[in-house]
Amino acid sequence: MASSRSKQSGMLVKPGFDSAARDFLKQRTALRNPEAFAVQYARLQPLVNVSRAAVAEIETNLELDFEQRRGVLHVFRGVRDFAEAQPAIDLLKRFEVPHRLLSPEECIAVEPSVPDTPAFAGGVLLADERTATVRSSPSNSSKCSMKPACSST
Fold it and tell me: What pTM did the predictor assign?
């Protein structure tokens, strides 16, 4: 089956005969409309809140050994990419998501592992968001075996 490259995202898309994949791509395309995204965001916000509370409870009760970093940095390599992200940045403002627009120099200061070559246009820092990696270790496995809702995979 032929593939196509989305003009909006640059992604190579090969849904084949999978109707679920084609339906997903149609829905993703529809959500590029800021108003449709706003409706979906409002629907998902309760799930986001419950997920954050569940993660906090897991951290408190299980005391898992994991690497964690506060802050998520999105880097835009090209000026065009940064400009095309403006509708998403406007949505961050609209939904009062704490964020900062950063120059390339500020991106490197926040995350020194970001290579400064090739040059890039800037970034968006979501300082309140977190990323984490749970180590698969015997101590984590024993803590998870006590709680059926925990998964260490």
Answer: 0.63
